[in-house]
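Subject line: Sequence and fold of a protein, written as structure tokens
Body of memo: The sequence and its backbone structure tokens, given next.
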Amino acid sequence: MGQGFPTLPPLNALKVFEAVTRHLNFRLAAEELGVTQGAVAQQIRGLESSLGLKLFERLPRTLALTAAGAGYAVSVRQAFELIDEATRALRPEPDHLTLSVTPTFASRWMLPRLPAFTTAWPDIDLRVLASERLVQFHHEGVDLAVRYGRPPFGAGLDATLLFSQSVLAVVSPDLLAGLGDPQDRDSFERYALLHDGHHLWPAFLAFVFPKSTLHHQHHLRFNQTALALEAVVSGQGIALTSPHFVENDLARGRLVPAFPQQMNVDAGWYLVSPHRPREHTSVQAVRAWLLEQIK
């Protein structure tokens, strides 16, 4: 008979260690694992004493991995990922795919296209998670994300450009009729500027009125583009957006361009996923479908 694993620490202690390396906090790791903070601390102490070395430095409000702990964390995580993949391969489930997108991308781009997706891929059980922050792919069970910015988005992540950011100013036709052409400086002063989290108005004003500095009076601020777009549709001002997010509104005449020109920005919307030697066929299918939609 072959040799077993005589030096292997208890697997439960390794699972606790892996959770603590991510949170660098006993309380948060305990919440994730559904155990008490004391149990987590005890498992880590037991692991450190069985290995004969310190894995963490205890700092006033957080923990830090020691050099030995950091190296061990990478290997332990890889080992758990291997076990996880092997277990998934044993239990073929219906194709679940979790796509994490920003709230604006979800409401303005994804929702109108979901019926077409379900027709094309009836066997894929798609979960759409709307979140601004970049996810922890492995631990949140996310297969693919759409994020705004510039790569790289993080170590071990692949990024594929969906579309570059170009910025269009949009307004409701009723407001335009009431307040006049925004290209005229005096008329423009009457409009409220609707801001989102991207803070592109200063650059856009310099772009459309290059010879003058504007000290605009009326501002409304939102933390998401989707909210600014709801406000612009209801006639509250002018908003800046990617043309991709207002295709339907422009086609139906609910919104019109406030200025004819579009401003290009050095950033874009990217498909982001963990770098894997083999990508699941369902992930490949969804990736291809998203890229096809852009064309």
Notes: The CA atoms of residues 168 and 262 lie 5 Å apart. The chain has a mean pLDDT of 89. The first helix runs from residue 11 to 23. The radius of gyration is 25 Å.
